[in-house]
Write the structure tokens for this entry.
Amino acid sequence: MTERKRLWFVNIPLLSIVAAILVFGTIMVNSATQGMTAGPGMLKRQALGIVIGLIGMAAVWAMDYRVAKTWIWPLFGLLVLAILSPKIPGLGDTAKGATAWLQIGSIRLFQPSEPAKLVLIVLMAAVISKYKGRLEAPADVAKVMGIMLVPLGLILLQPDLGTGLVFVAITMGMLLIGGLKARWFLVFALVGVLAAGVVLKADVLKEYQKDRLLVFVDADRDPDGAGYNLAQSKIAIGSGELTGKGLGSGTQSNLNFLPERHTDFIFSVIGEELGFLGAVILLGLYLALLVTSLEIAAQSRDLFGALIVAGIISMWLFQILENVGMTIGLMPITGIPLPFVSYGSSFLVTNLLAVGMLLSVWTRRLGTTR
Amino acid sequence: MPDFRELLKPRFAALAAIVLMVLGLLLVRLWTMQVLSGKAYAETADDNRVQAYTVEAPRGRILDRFGRELVSNRPTLAVMIAPEVRENRDLLHRLSTVLDMPADEILERATSTRQAPLKPRAIAIDVPMEAVAYISEHPTEFPGVSIDVQAVRQYPRGATAAHVLGYTGEISDTELADPDREGYELGDIVGKAGAERQFETVLQGDRGYRKIEVDAQGRSQRIIEEGDPIPGHDVRLTIDSRIQKVAEKALRQAMVDAHRDKFPKAKAGAAVALDVNTGEVLAMASAPSYDPDVFLGGITQKEWKALTAKKREYPLTNRAIMAQYPAASTFKAFTGLAGLQTGVAGVGSSYYCEGRWIGMGEQWDKWCWNHGGHGTETFTEGISDSCDVVFYEIGYSFYKRKRDELQKFVRRFGFGEQTGIDLPSEADGRVPDAKWKKEFNKDYPEYQRWLPGDTVNVAIGQGDLLVTPLQIAAAYSGIANDGKVMRPHVLRQVMGGDGKPVKTVKPEVAFDTKVSSTNLATMRTALEAVTTEGTAEGVFGDFPVRVAGKTGTAQVAGKDDYAWFVGFAPAENPKYCVVVAVEQGGHGGSVAGPAARDILGALLGVTTEHVTAEDESR
């Protein structure tokens, strides 16, 4: 038996790429948190996140994803519970105006909205796979969208606009693989634009959220708050030029001009310290991750597995677009972190669990299809 | 191959296309920002973190002619307030209590627009240690308040020579716009008056700079680059601080004497002592004076108003060079010289004074100050007795000869123009003539004609003639210095960092009068007669050194007479010339003369008592 044959169940490229991005991310979080008094503690927490994530990943990998195919209603319930759990008195905590953390006593456990994304992916995969790749009847589309709109509505009420947008992106990506016709996407786009208009007009959003969104259109709105963050982020990235200022030498970063530099704005630190070349390396790694994932999806033994992988790809792609995009003024500012790179253990664990799901699909790619 | 995979292929291709599009979009944007516009962003990033400060250069000191300090610098503890907290009423209230100063004064200083907008402003200097300690120990009670060590001007000899020295203050908008003040910044301390202003460029020095790295909160991280300031040059003046003190005291005493003589309005005046051979100003006093310390740390509106108030006689005005008075009888020396030089008068000329003079006709009669009349007067007696009739005659002769000949002559001594002294704001004085009168009365045609009485008035130093005390001192120095009026100056040397002079001012002829030595000698003899047998005999009768001089009592419409005395000594070999003028002081011989005697005594090193003298002349 050749070595290649022996390891047929391991997708070495995927694991190598993920490991590379994790190393890259850890180095950057280390650089971004140097000088912060809580810096060493954060690094430890991040390392703990990686360990827990890897264990979780292995556990998910070991499971046969196909068992989840019939769990539509339990998954639905779990999803709603996950979204609502921080609202339960005694369990929630509020960060940045949104109730987002699950905690016991004063110990923060994790942000349930993170694993909720994975639950949504499996749920939608189970729902969409029933249509066997042909999603044409308006009644069917309505049914699928209906199931998705409940968690979306709940997450927007948190209010957690960022996660809501991820939900939408995941669903759209899965609907594309699930066979939704192009004209439906046009309809959704139209509805989305209208909804955005209504949301901005009516006072649904909190003021800070509105500022974040509109600053992207008008940089002078709120120059000390959201506009300041965007301006400083762009200065950081732009000033990195081709090769960057050197790891740990970013002035924007180390002198506190960059807000949230180890979490939402970690890419600004990368752009500043490693320059355009560093950004190319990271985006190259992401490209490799997404292409490898696409390959896994294409080799899935069933539509359910392919849909799961497509959901994960959509989730990552949107988060990369949104996170990098907001740091360079292409996207509105929402609190979406950069996969495998941003500081935040809930997020890290979730992404590693997603890798576990990819591996689960990969390992079980052989055999008959249904 | 299962059919669903075939079905999904184009969809995966679409998803792959989206992936490539998204990542491509991000890369294009990053390329434009980091590679195409990277330089501009890098500059903005540097602007963010680098703050450049200027470091004030120590201002040069001002010394007297022997190197005694008149102005130096001293460190002081200043309380600074950041502009953004000036609206904080509670804070202002607390500061008011701790600093023991009115809250509105703190606010006035805090809102000064004379500083760069973001720079902290000094609200108090010379803050007591207890207040400094209290503020430093309670930072949360005093947000935006800091303590800074600043250098301010120090006046070791108090108000001595205040008008010559001038004062400093924050640069004004007008000064900032002045090309001579290029390189200055808002908030800079510059000389505003006197020597401080005149020698600003040498005193100022070159400011140093410091570039520091700050974080987003503005906290300094490290010094990136710095350049030491280059201190300004010390300047050594011609002023002798000892003589200066005597002159100031004498001027004050003159006012006391005036009050004694029932001239209660005597509050202002000036005194100048010159070296007749070099033009060096050994003393220059002006009354009333002021305390230069009020300008330290910035002057408040209230203090400024007090210093520029009419009812306080404008204490900031340096009357020695800025005040313009009728020269009165002190001018007779020049009318006399004009007569000698043109032949209108001679040593042997004889005049008859009846008290009333009707040389221009009965209806244009004029009076000598001595209404009883001097009787027969020689030319010399005309000077020593200060007989007006003698000079009415001479003046009228000039009117008849050539209208402006007298005026042209006296201008040779520098009247009607600045002496060119190295101090700012010197007045021109005025020598009236036909052309001037026509222009001056251009809206009153009936007053435009130059009349014989106008020339006669000039001859006795009255009418529209105006002189500064310095002009009189300089012109008499010219009589003493064989017809050459030396340029009065207060700067002696500019000192280098090693204590050696880098520049020494050389004596310079300001006006070469080209009056013959014989005529000048005649005039000096006549002027000496003033102190031996004339109007100043009572003042100088027992003075151990021969003095040549002239009293004057000027008539000013609506005011008491102004007292003048000008003289030089030793008369046989003149060295010093002193002038004293007292506004509304009464008679020159009794008020200005004794003060001038005190100053001459100090200059010549002869100890004398202050004398009381009587004088009725004009």
Notes: Chain A has a mean pLDDT of 86. The two ends of chain A are 30 Å apart (CA to CA). The beta strands of chain A are 92-95, 98-104, 107-110.
